[in-house]
Fold this sequence. Notes:
Layout: H1 10-23, E1 27-33, E2 43-48, H2 52-70, E3 75-77, E4 84-88, E5 92-97, H3 99-105, H4 107-111, H5 116-122
Parallel strand pairs: 2-5
Antiparallel strand pairs: 1-2, 3-4, 4-5
Helix pairs in contact: 1-2
Amino acid sequence: MTGARTDVTSDALLASILTSLENDKAEDIVQIDLRGKSSIGDYMIVCSGRSSRQVTAIAEKLVERLKDEFGIPVRTEGKETGDWVLIDTGDVVVHVFRPEVREFYQLEKMWLPNHPASDQARG
């Protein structure tokens, strides 16, 4: 695709991202609806890869697919270490973690008070 599409909805991005993550064997995918709760985006997705190599591969493939499918600029951080990669599409923010790093930060706890990670942190 040569130019950025301006008609991309956050729901279309979300569907494409979830498909990509599932195809690349991301684990424990959690989708968080941020609409009306935060200005950082409409959705946040948190998922895990089994190793630093898989985390990096999941992130790289997702960025490539989003650029090919939608032609939108995508910002990433953390690909160098492969512990936690942040992918920001503007409307959807994706966090890809190694399981140990995800357990440490527990982003789901902050955004989903009734998520099992919150229960684990309490008890």
